[in-house]
């Protein structure tokens, strides 16, 4: 997969490189209802699904688990792939998911794990 890079100029004449990446993804509910979408920031979009921040189908059916995704460097290719997947029947979508993720595990399960305070597991202070 080729990745497209864009060089942009800042006002002072220095350059920086910006990487373009687009993802087509599938999120599922516990009962395996599927939602297919496309985004330029997969981590943000998965967070929005997991926390029901966007009204619509995925919120109504509680599609919170990322079960499949593909990356593209060209937005047109990503849009075409999203449309293609949405035309597929359910069996074909399930086949695609189960090729890479046979147990339908949440591929983003550890992306947003926070440290939890556990007073009984504190490290003792260093001896002086």
Main beta sheet: 3 strands, antiparallel
Overall pLDDT score: 84
The helical percent reads 25-40%
Q: Say which CATH homologous superfamily of the domain at 21-100 is assigned.
A: GIY-YIG endonuclease
Describe this structure in words.
- The protein has 4 helices and 5 strands, in the order E-E-E-E-H-H-E-H-H.
- Strands 4-3-5 form a 3-stranded antiparallel beta sheet, with helices on both faces.
- The protein has a domain of 80 residues: GIY-YIG endonuclease (3-Layer(aba) Sandwich), CATH 3.40.1440.10.
- The chain is globular.
- Strand 1 and strand 2 form a beta hairpin.
- By secondary structure, the chain is α+β, with helices and mostly antiparallel strands.
- The chain is 29% helix and 26% strand.
């Amino acid at each position: 997969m080729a990745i497209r890079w864009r060089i942009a100029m800042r006002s002072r004449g220095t350059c920086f490189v910006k990487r373009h990446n687009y993802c087509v993804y599938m999120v599922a509910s516990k009962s395996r209802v599927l939602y297919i979408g496309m985004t330029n920031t997969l981590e943000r979009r998965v967070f929005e699904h997991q926390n029901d921040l966007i009204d619509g189908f995925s919120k109504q059916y509680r599609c919170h688990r990322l079960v499949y995704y593909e990356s593209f460097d060209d937005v047109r290719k990503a849009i075409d792939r999203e449309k293609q997947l949405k035309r597929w029947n359910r069996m074909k979508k399930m086949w695609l998911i189960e090729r890479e993720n046979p147990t339908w595990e949440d591929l983003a399960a550890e992306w947003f794990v926070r440290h939890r305070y556990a007073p009984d597991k504190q490290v003792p202070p260093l001896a002086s």
